[in-house]
Amino acid sequence: KTEKLGILKIENEKLKTAFIKEVNGNVYISNYNDGFIKVAEEKNYINKITNVTGSIWSMAKNSSSIYIINDESKIFNYNKNFVLKEIIKTNIPHGPKSMLATDENIYIGSSAGLFSINIKDKTEYQLLDKNVFSIKRFKDKFYVSTFQGDIYVLNLNGETIDLIETRTNYPVYDTLLVDDTLWIASQSGLIEYKKNKLKNIYSEDFVFNIIHVNDSIYFGTRNAVLSLNLTNNKQLKINSILKRNKIIYSLSKINNIILAASNREVNIIDLENKNTFTLNVDNGSLEDYNSQSSLIFDGKVLLGSNDGVGVTEPSDVIRKIQKGKES
Asked: DSSP character for 93?
């Protein structure tokens, strides 16, 4: 039984009849007459999913499917092997979107508002008429961030039960709930919301995304990845983790590894060993990634871009890089 590993882009090569062999992670291809082509292992640290196209704004998953939405008004439903199961048509306008899925519904935020789509009968409802930037679920509540700077809190029935007004009139890009504190990523910086009080923690730059790893939160700006240790509440100190002078479009985490997607590169931050690895276009990085468009799946990270989806397995990449240094 054979297993499909991927696709090689070799249209310009004279390879009507080809011999292909893999040796130590490198792939060698020959047509028996003109020598051979070597496809180095490091060129494929990030792979592209071939049957996902367009500008990918958001990805979500539930127990049975992976959902991807691009610039159009359609949701592409894939199984866990990335075989397309169905295309769900919606009335949501073209443009940026944020998506979240449960086993019953798909929730989509867009410039036209927040919508829910029933997975079984495809019934579509509008839950909010605000310009929605992101949707997050923490426990039994949805946190819906808007372009106007407000955060709507909804129960699992889609009913608004609370409204958090940042009063900044700036977009809220992301939210993160840690214990009883809601952390807010905003154009005005990083905001702490606790016991119905707002406190600006960091205001030197835009903050686009936030994740929680161990005792710290990590957030991406227009120039860097920064962190904030939460164990010392009396003296919150901002630490610099990665400085790239590029927008950090998304942050993802797998165990003690963080992935920071940026323009033409993906940075792997190994927190345990305090190492950082930068993967560029020579390693398979796509040209540009979309804000918040990332998804953890089966030990891998999926990254949405303006040209499809890239996929990488951070721990495997680190192992291969370190093995290459030792040889």
From this structure: P
